[in-house]
Amino acid sequence: MPTKAQNLGKGGAMNTADRTRTAATQRPATPRPFTMGIVNADALAMRTLREIIADMVAEAHVLWTESSGREAVEHCLRDHRKPDLVLIDLLLQGLKGADTCLLIRRKSARIKLLATQTFPMGDSRSIAIRAGAQGLVCKDDDGVIVGALRTVASGGVMPGFPTAEEAHHRAVERLGMADGRLTVKEMEILDLMVDDVASAGICASLGITPGTLRRHLQSIRGKLHAGNNVQAVLTWLKGE
């Protein structure tokens, strides 16, 4: 049997180099910096999340925090305010967390979405998946939040969740947007209606007349099989 001394020399040098390379590959990679937004209506929860991120996710830079889903959607449509990832509470007031996720997802295949909730609830996971999120975490486990943030920010997903790109394609296909079922103008009108913009404001924003708006709304209701404008907006939000 060869002794340790006999193993030294050329073969030993190669083994040493191999061990050095192996050690290098096993060192944890430095996490890539990423930007993010946080949407949570609970001031205490928001403060806790910010502290967790500041203390444990040094590579994350929080661009903004909001208690309103509508404001979060607006941030994600502005070039200089678009984050890499948004952490969204499902239990938002007004525009619900799932609806906020869905509106962002329809507009972007790049922004990653991580949903949060205070307590585990039966159908929350399926709701978050349908809304286009890449994961769902409870807010009572710091380690899980940190791990999920890093996983999703790096392009990964939690088990059973789609990637941002996959979720985007599903979201647009569900309403037939990919095959031209809804026109770009019709989608813009629906987005403005979600934001509670009045008819006059929609006309001014899109440069159309009230008569043209009425024709668009009639077309939208027909395509979405909605009896009125409220039903059309709800169908648009739910992606059904």
From TrEMBL:
GO terms for molecular function: DNA binding. The keyword Transmembrane does not apply. CDD domains: LuxR_C_like. It comes from Bifidobacterium vespertilionis. Signal peptide: none annotated. Keywords: DNA-binding, Phosphoprotein. Residues 1-32 are annotated as: Disordered. Residues 22-32 have a biased composition (Low complexity). PROSITE patterns: HTH_LUXR_2 (PS50043), RESPONSE_REGULATORY (PS50110). Coiled coil: none annotated. Residues 175-240 form the HTH luxR-type domain. The keyword Metal-binding does not apply. Residues 35-154 form the Response regulatory domain. This is Response regulator transcription factor. It comes from the Bacteria. The modification 4-aspartylphosphate is found at D89. Pfam families: GerE, Response_reg. GO terms for biological process: phosphorelay signal transduction system; regulation of DNA-templated transcription.
